């Protein structure tokens, strides 16, 4: 059966175009990516399409065993509750989750670190009707026990608060890592320095607020942890090539 969704411009990289996606084709495409768990979910957070990797990770034999279920239905404990709560937030707010570092369960007894991205799917009226996303394994030669859960918790706190006091030193302390080890760690996972990673998270949050709200630029600057309008404008232009005001007009 062929299923199609409309993805709004805010949820993809195709400018102002609205793209029709055949999720069955995408599902088959991602079947060839064993290090990625691909999924499409409806407005209730139930799987509409998945790839073979997601099925095998949870110990099932066929995609039909997963379709219609939620993460909490196929995985016990936090490994099922956390993604279900993430889905609920994306579906409720329409805000994407991007490159979120988290530990996931890979059966039979093999937790793995993943970077998860989830984008809201909108209908032609702009209503959120589902989400699409994937979790890709962290492909680095770092044993799982050397990736501290404190690092993921620190990033989650930062993404939630965007506190101005967050620096590489703050991130290292919260993660229980030395500055040198943190730098090697972020470079191997994200191909970014800690400073670049922090800037990326701030700019991504600011970009969303510029697109989705009418808040003044200076208010967005402060909300995203920049000390003032000028510092925000410089950082935003450096990252995107345009000023925040121009970016807002182009959205």
In short:
This is HTH-type transcriptional regulator ChbR. The protein is of the alpha+beta class and 251 residues long. The protein contains eleven helices and seven strands.
Order of helices and strands: EEHEEHHHEEEHHHHHHH
Described by the principal axes of the CA atoms, the overall outline is globular
For this structure, what is the CATH class of the largest domain? Alpha Beta
> Into which percent range does the helicity of residues fall?
40-55%
CATH architecture of the largest domain: 2-Layer Sandwich
Note poorly predicted spans.
1-20
Give the end-to-end Cα distance, rounded to a whole number of Å. 35 Å
In the CATH hierarchy, the third-tier topology of the largest domain is known as Beta-Lactamase
Structural class: alpha+beta
Assigned CATH superfamily of the largest domain: PAS domain
- Helical run tally: 11
Strand proportion? 15-25%
Q: Which oligomeric form is depicted?
A: single chain
Radius of gyration: 19 Å
Number of strands: 7
Spatially, the strands of the biggest sheet line up as 4-3-7-6-5
Write down the domain tally.
Answer: 2
The biggest beta sheet reads:
5 strands, antiparallel
Mean pLDDT value:
84
GO molecular function: DNA-binding transcription factor activity; sequence-specific DNA binding
Protein name: HTH-type transcriptional regulator ChbR
InterPro entries: AraC_XylS_family_regulators, Homeodomain-like_sf, HTH_AraC, HTH_AraC-typ_CS, PAS, PAS-like_dom_sf, PAS_4, Tscrpt_reg_AraC-type_HTH
Pfam families: HTH_18, PAS_4
């Amino acid at each position: 059966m062929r299923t199609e969704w409309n993805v709004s411009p805010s949820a993809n990289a195709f400018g102002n175009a609205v793209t029709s996606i055949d999720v069955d084709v995408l599902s088959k495409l991602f079947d060839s990516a064993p290090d990625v768990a691909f999924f499409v979910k409806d407005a209730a957070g139930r799987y509409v399409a998945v790839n073979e990797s997601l099925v095998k990770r949870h110990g099932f034999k066929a995609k039909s065993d997963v379709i219609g279920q939620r993460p909490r239905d196929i995985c016990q404990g936090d490994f099922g509750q956390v993604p279900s709560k993430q889905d609920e937030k994306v579906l409720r707010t329409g805000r994407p989750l991007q490159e979120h570092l988290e530990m996931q369960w890979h059966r039979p007894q093999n937790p793995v670190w993943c970077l998860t991205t989830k984008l809201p799917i909108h209908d032609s009226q702009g209503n959120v009707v589902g989400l699409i996303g994937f979790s890709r394994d962290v492909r680095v030669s770092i044993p799982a026990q050397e990736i501290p859960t404190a690092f993921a918790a620190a990033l989650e706190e930062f993404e939630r608060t965007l506190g101005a006091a967050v620096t590489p030193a703050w991130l290292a302390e919260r993660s229980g890592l030395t500055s040198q080890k943190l730098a090697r760690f972020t470079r191997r996972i994200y191909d970014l320095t800690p400073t670049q990673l922090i800037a990326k998270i701030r700019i991504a949050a600011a970009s969303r607020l510029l697109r989705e709200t009418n808040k003044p630029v200076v208010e967005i600057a402060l909300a995203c942890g920049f000390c003032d309008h000028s510092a925000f404008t410089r950082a935003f232009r450096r990252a995107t090539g345009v000023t925040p005001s121009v970016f807002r007009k182009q959205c």
